[in-house]
Amino acid sequence: MACVFDGIKVLDFGWILVGPQISGYLARHGATIVKVEALNRPDSVRLSAPFKDRMPGQNRSGYFAGLNPNKYGMTLNLKHPKGLEVAKKLVAWADIVTENFAPGVMEGWGLDYEGLKKIKPDIIMIRSSNQGQTGPQAHRRGFGILLASQVGFNAVTGWPDRGPNTSYLGYTDFIAPRFAAAAVSAALIHRKRTGKGQCLDVSQAETALHFLAPVILDYTVNQHREWERAGNASPYSAPHGAYPCQGEDSWCAISVTTDEEWRAFCRAIGNPAWTQRPEFATLIGRKKNEDELNELVGRWTVDHTSREVMMLLQGAGVSAGVVQNTKDLLEDPQLKLRDYVWYLEHDELGQYPHMGPYIKLSRTPAQPRMPAPNLGQHTELVCREFLGMPDEEFTQLLVEGVFD
Amino acid sequence: MLDGIRVLDLTDDKGYLCGRILGDMGADVIKIERPGGDPGRSLGPFYHDIPHEERSLYWFAYNANKRSITLNLESADGRELFRKLAAGADAVIESFSPGFMDGLGLGYNVLSKIKPGIIFTSISPFGQEGPYSQFKYSDIALMAMGGYMYTCGEPDRPPLRIAFPQSPMFAGVEAASGTLMALYHREMTGEGQVVDISLEHSLTGTSSSLVTAWWYLEGVILSRVGQYRAGLGAGIKQRQMWPCRDGWVSFQIYGGAMGAKANKALLQWMDSEGCATDHLKGIDWDNMDMSKLTQDDMDKMEQPIGVFLLRYTKAELEEAALTKDIMLYPVNTMADILNSPQLKARNFWMDVEHPELGASIVYPGEWAKLSDYPMKIRRAPLIGEHNADIYKQELGLSDVELSALKQARVI
User: Fold this and answer.
1) What is the pLDDT of residue A185?
2) Three-class SS of residue B270?
């Protein structure tokens, strides 16, 4: 079955999280991705635990595999002049080049946008770095988890009486790729119409700030108001929070805003006497007495499983959702319908869940084609089949260490 | 870049960002609001704290670069007008309950006959089909179901969301990508299709394959660790949020070559202030294998660092991080962000005119710098601001017809 990006060729220098997710959108939807790594400096996620059977190995990282289905993997020594030549042949082959190095790395190889255009005038280049390609701090090192602090998410996450909390992984790592996927799709439309390529400078910090745009506007127009940590409270809903349920560390989120929802909530939980108290009859009243309200709701939820709470309340028209963990996500019937993971046979991991496509298309759905590549697995295939390199040339380069 | 592409935007707050992104890249996005204004205009915060449909900062932020018409889709006239509009549209984006548009006779099957090749993007909490597909949305329920909350918060308290709604953001960007992917496919083949976006599914992207891997390979479910982060080895916590003299910073002892460099730089600074312990000075950072550390090892490294960081303000620590190349970032407030020299140098902030308010407001600007297309921001529309442009000039309705439709609450 056809996929959206069939025939699109991508030279992928991406590593860790952001770059691989960007090429991941293209990979899942039909593009041919050549992921380039150095033999002695592979994508560092390959070195991240957990490993299959607790045996470390570059091809045994589950973290890596999940992020990289549908990609060819080759190694290339870009310090070797002939390695750079191979890279340039790959540029000539490619429609798109992706990278998320610190600014300057591609420049060092002569593979910045100007360099790429000399080889392939209509190339589309996606550059995704922490803070963009320009500016006084463009070269500052960091990871997504640090960037999330820098762009303001951690300041608004946490309990008022404790400190800021951080999202589990680098939160900003998951925002930038989504913007980049939109930009590259638009760039492909633009190229189809005009024949022109483009350079897309996607700053992880700048994309992330858009997820807080109203909070920023509140600051710029309302006398520099700062949002505070609010726990799980909402200014316009009560009850609103995560409530304890039966079992260990089991919670259900509940949100009640309108009178209708409040009445439905009360009915659903059996109209206990406390719900008739006048202070709980209005939103303002419930907000004023929120701590007590939360405690009372918790006393009901704790007698039920999180799933029971969700099904009962949603059945009554009240918004509720189980606080799902990673195991729950794999078992979630909605996510199963959407190919949350593709179980693909990987030669070292066995059957392994590779993250599936987030975008569900009716006519040209994403297709699982290959498990995540082993390091250098397709070096020869890429050279011979994609670049049309004759056998002798390949062997000669191999001997000279061009693929180390 | 997307000149000539027309998008009919029927989304509510679950999907505004999709149309915004398309508009940012040059598409003609027409926000269709119900008469009286889109319900999302009730979402705060508000300009000068005046709760009002034309003062919602949420509306301003996510509906910039769109035009607005009013339309009651549930009326016969409304549906007729919508079908006429669809005939000239490239894409329709909506976030109603699954099946609602079909119920109105305005679903993909109907619209694709009116406009072959049309893209129909549906944004919903859990997707168009399935046992939860009619579930009621709230950001916290989605942050819960999508797996974000389980790994956020203090271990002795309930799991946490982020104080500002994030689930519609992930879905909005995802929907923009999906719509553009479908538009690209149409450029190549002439074929349209349905794009089905789920807030829950898009949110699962925040937990990534690492969390899945720990469960699948080790049977370990990573859970919230407060101001720490986990995942190095099951059970080992490393501090991530550190108090300093006037706030907090985010810092973590990293491994590998990059970490070694940064850790040595920190140690050198601590040493120059007489704060480096013998234990810390004795560590071989270049060869430290993070996966072999015990909790005790970690605590012994972190304790003197914690004491050290408390001596300095956020600004001092950021200065040191920049000059000494330490991987430490302040937990920034909005003030810090608006003062960032990096963002200023990037011309990130844009002044947007709001003539009705007699003001110009500073907005976050380009979310990417596209070499062939500098983005601009035009303020979000007023309710039905472009009714005349669309209904009269394009569809040729007369003043009499427009007046009748207004009074019948069709527009």
Assistant:
1) 98
2) helix
B289 pLDDT exceeds 90? no
Q: How far apart are CA B131 and CA A18, in angstroms?
A: 32
Q: Is residue A308 part of a domain?
A: yes
**Domain assignment of residue A331, yes or no:** no
- Asked if A249 and A205 sit in the same domain, the reply is no
Q: How far is CA B398 from the centre of its chain?
A: 41
Segment A27-57, tens digit of pLDDT: 999 999 999 999 999 999 999 989 999 999 9
Indicate the domain borders of chain B: 6-204+381-407, 227-331
B207: Cβ–Cβ under 8 A, 6 or more apart, which residues?
Answer: A168, A169, A326, A329, B147, B148, B150, B151
Are A402 and A83 in contact, with CB atoms under 8 Å apart? Answer: yes
Q: What proportions of chain A, in percent to the nearest 5, are helix, strand and coil? A: 45, 15, 40
Complex ipTM, two decimals? Answer: 0.97
**B6-204+381-407: what fold?**
Rossmann fold (3.40.50)
CATH no. of B227-331: 3.30.1540.10
Cβ A404 vs Cβ A379: under 8 Å: no
Point out which residues pair with B285 in neighbouring strands: none
What is the rounded distance in angstroms from the CA atom of residue A275 to the CA atom of residue A281? 8
Do residues B9 and B29 make contact, with C-beta atoms less than 8 angstroms apart? yes
Residue type, B151: T
382-411 in chain B: CB under 8 A from chain A: none
Out of A136, A210, A354, the one facing B342 most closely (by C-beta) is: A136
Look at chain A and report how many structural domains it folds into. 2
pLDDT tens figures, A331-387: 999 999 999 999 999 999 999 999 999 999 999 999 999 999 999 999 999 999 999
| CATH code of the domain in which A300 resides | 3.30.1540.10
At residue B207, the pLDDT reads 86
A312 and A352 co-located in one domain: no
A57, A177: one domain: yes
One domain, residues A283 and A372: no
A67 and A202 belong to one structural domain: yes
Determine contact, residues B228/B299, Cβ cutoff 8 Å. Answer: no
Q: How confident is the model at residue B294 (pLDDT cuts 50, 70, 90)?
A: confident
Of the residues A325, A353, A368, the one at which a domain ends: A325
Q: Report the DSSP pairing between strands A32-37 and A72-75.
A: parallel
Same domain, A43 and A161: yes
Q: Which residue has the tokens 């301003």?
A: B60
Residue of A61, A217, A344 to mutate when probing chain B, most B C-beta within 10 A: A217
Residues of the domain holding A285: 240-325
Cβ of B177 within 8 Å of Cβ of A213? The answer is no
Of A325, A357, A373, the last residue of a domain is A325
Identify whether residues A287 and A353 lie together within a single domain.
no
Q: Tell me which of A43, A95, A173, A339 is the catalytic residue.
A: A173
A169 and A128 inside one domain: yes
Residue A87 lies in a domain: yes
Q: Cβ–Cβ of A362/B194 closer than 8 Å?
A: yes
The chain-wide mean pLDDT, for chain A, equals 96
Q: Is the pLDDT score of B325 beyond 90?
A: no
Does the active-site annotation cover A173?
A: yes
Element (H, E) at A37: strand A32-37
State how far the Cα of A313 lies from the Cα of A323, in Å rounded to an integer: 15
Question: Looking at the partner chain, which of A149, A242, A337 has a beta carbon nearest the beta carbon of B144?
Answer: A242
Confidence of residue A330 (pLDDT cuts 50, 70, 90): very high
Alpha helices in B274-398 (DSSP H): 278-281, 295-309, 314-324, 334-338, 341-345, 387
Residue A181 resides in a domain = yes
Q: Is B50 within 8 Å of chain A by CB? A: no
**Under an 8 A CB cutoff, do B368 and A187 touch?**
no
Query: Residue B369: enclosing H or E segment and its boundaries?
Result: strand B369-370
Query: Residue A74: is its pLDDT beyond 70?
Result: yes
